[in-house]
Amino acid sequence: MTNxxxxxxxxxxxxxxxxxxxxxxxxxPADAAEFDxxxxxxxxxxxxxxxxxxxxxxxxxxxxxxxxxxxxxxANQLGSDTDLLAQVRNGSVEFFNLxxxxxxxxxxxSGITSVGFAFKNYADVWKAMDGDLGKHxxxxxxxxxxxxxxxxxxxxxRHISSSTREIKSAADLKGFxxxxxxxxxxxxxxxxxxxxxxxxxxxEVYTALQTKVVExxxxxxxxxxxxxxxxxxxxxxxxxxxxDGYWVLANKRIFERLPVDIQQIISRELDxxxxxxxxxxxxxxxxxxxxxxxxxxxxxxxxQDSFREQLARTTFYADWKAxxxxxxxxxxxxxxxKLG
Length: 340
What we know:
Layout: H1 10-18, E1 35-40, H2 48-63, E2 68-73, H3 81-90, E3 95-99, H4 100-103, H5 122-129, H6 132-141, E4 146-148, E5 153-162, E6 177-180, H7 184-192, E7 196-199, H8 205-210, E8 216-219, H9 221-226, E9 235-251, H10 252-257, H11 260-294, E10 298-301, H12 305-312, H13 316-324, H14 326-336
């Protein structure tokens, strides 16, 4: 009769396991992705930034033969914009799209895209953001524990709406009570134009307009329409006073550890979707003017000249030039022309 094999201690089991090849311990289903990544946004699932991002994810999975799976979390499911910026910095979320206006709280120069009346049209925007200014901003972002993995996406030009007066020139803004988000660049802009800006949380905007706490507000047309602000406003001046975009941010440490071919595929497909999303926003803006006219909004086409001239009589441009620095400002003026 043989003696029974002595029981192994827990320490012995762990020691023996440590000598085994890694692949014999860690296994995954044949159809599971090698790289499972999270991509968060703050926008509604139907927004073009999400529709086009999901198309990119499908192409990335196909191009990598299933090695990469990017899971999508829209509408601030994983937290507020501030929370998500912290999460992409520490790596608990791999990708996050964020407005350049909000990113400016962490990377100040990213806010230069929202200098008042710097861009006259989209041709100027893309010349700057796909050119030297965009390259400079991306380099500054990469000095932090994050980086950008595609060209910038479109959030749109912001326009001024009113329930009391028609805004046709800078003079019409004198004393105008206008809601702005809690963004120093926009508060500074409207103060310099002799308006009376009031920072109000977006969920309170409709009520503030309805009760006449403020006379007007400023937003891209898509926000104006989806928030039904046309119900409490009469006119909309197509000032295009500020343009804003979305940067697709990645945790630098995690992204740079991906195989180079996968990094290239992710950036290539996100760039393709950025182009598609830009076209979506351009088409949507044209459509929204017609839709909002049908709902009773009077649209006013205005020249930016008087607004830029008013700002030039103040320290507005000099103050923001000092904040963003000579290099960034020179790159902006290569496209915008002399400011101030």
